[in-house]
Amino acid sequence: MERLNEPFLTSDLPGIGGRIRSVPEDFQVEERP
Description:
Layout: no helix or strand
């Protein structure tokens, strides 16, 4: 399979540093009976 060398669509936007939901406050939990 040949790999394409196309640029990313979001290359102009800054990255998020590789961290998603890294602290407990980032999560939302709904408790059900």
